[in-house]
């Protein structure tokens, strides 16, 4: 694919660096010459310093021949205009990053599509939805649903209480034959492992598991974690993600939101009817203790400062908070944050990449998720009549190294994939893959 990425910082850089592994022809357009020099020194990407709303710059980037134009600057107006101009010049598909969720109504999406904006991604909206899912599945470090929850992917940490500890995958299957779930990958010491029957669950492993809803109770038993109901929540940071998260939760749970900006607190009080708004500094430990941090079930840190989010989550954990979630903008901090005890990391760069990844393969993809702290992703492919995947049982397919098929959704019913499973036309197939294997895996579903 010929792909143009217009950005103004790390989001565009991260996306470009991730997509280079898929062997696309990528041009990065960015107004910052210094950043582009750094990109060129680290990669083989073609870069152009300039404004993406300039017709001259878009023509220089060869928008006429672009299969995909992605605009992920912080200013949504520039992103929308870039996509409109690029489409008029000949780009086949365009994607714009936006902040205003009002644009995502069916009517407005149709309107923008008529102008030339094919897809819009709002990382803040997706982040807020992910946070709600994490509170519903509170034993998981990461959660992603496929086909409205018919299949779910969970990231589970293996500790000394886990019943699967020091057992091989084959032994676990024999002891617990009725569990409708499949471990598709293990993250161990920073390495991604596609497990075999003789591999073993070890302490501190992070296991990616594809599961049907009916097996969630068994998963809790297998990893030795007690379920708990989240009733009381403190949110630090009232930006777009914090506001949307509070709005999603305030009707079901008791929510307190702390923000240091007094004017923003007044605005939040106008739009959040049941959330208690507190004007204060989330790093003020006395304030957190006054607001009952010790009796809080979940602490969600969503300020503009990664360091603040990490530190306040650690303080919450120290006071016995059962679930901590931190917005971490620096990708290099993700592994460290998980290692020191923060349950879940939210990262807008990964969220944006996850949404866009599905449009960078030739196969039809229903949904996709770029996985935190790994070079891997999980995708929901749609099998077509001529797809190679429909011609043989799974164990006879030429599935590339570093990839595996986890589950299948057929006619509104989900089941876990087995070696003798035969994929059929129109099946939705959930597959895990490291980035280097994605292109070859996608060929099975062309």
Structure write-up:
With 446 residues, this protein is of the alpha/beta class. Helices cover 32% and strands 26% of the residues. The chain has helices at residues 10-20, 33-42, 55-60, 76-89, 106-115, 123-136, 169-175, 216-223, 240-249, 262-271, 285-290, 306-318, 334-339, 348-357, 438-443, and strands at 2-6, 25-30, 46-49, 68-71, 93-97, 119-121, 142-146, 151-157, 181-188, 191-193, 206-211, 232-236, 254-259, 276-279, 298-301, 323-327, 344-346, 365-370, 376-382, 403-410, 413-416, 428-434. The strands form four sheets. A six-stranded parallel sheet has the order 3-2-1-4-5-6, with helices on both faces. It has a six-stranded parallel sheet with strand order 14-13-12-15-16-17, sandwiched between helices. Helix 6 (123-136) crosses helix 9. It is globular, with a radius of gyration of 22 Å. The mean pLDDT is 89.
List keywords for this structure.
six-stranded parallel β-sheet; 32% helix; alpha/beta; globular; 446 residues; 22 strands
Main-sheet strand order equals 3-2-1-4-5-6
* Shape field: globular
**What do the pLDDT scores average to?**
89
Helical content class:
25-40%
Beta content comes to: 25-35%
Work out the radius of gyration: 22 Å
Ends apart, CA distance between termini: 14 Å
Can you give me a brief rundown of this structure?
The chain is an alpha/beta fold. The chain is built from 15 helices and 22 strands. Strand 18 (365-370) and strand 19 form a beta hairpin.
How does the SSE layout of this entry go?
Blueprint (H helix, E strand, L loop, with lengths): L1 E5 L3 H11 L4 E6 L2 H10 L3 E4 L5 H6 L7 E4 L4 H14 L3 E5 L8 H10 L3 E3 L1 H14 L5 E5 L4 E7 L11 H7 L5 E8 L2 E3 L12 E6 L4 H8 L8 E5 L3 H10 L4 E6 L2 H10 L4 E4 L5 H6 L7 E4 L4 H13 L4 E5 L6 H6 L4 E3 L1 H10 L7 E6 L5 E7 L20 E8 L2 E4 L11 E7 L3 H6 L3
Parallel strand pairs: 1-2, 1-4, 2-3, 4-5, 5-6, 12-13, 12-15, 13-14, 15-16, 16-17
Antiparallel strand pairs: 7-8, 8-11, 9-10, 9-11, 18-19, 19-22, 20-21, 20-22
Helix pairs in contact: 1-14, 6-9, 6-14
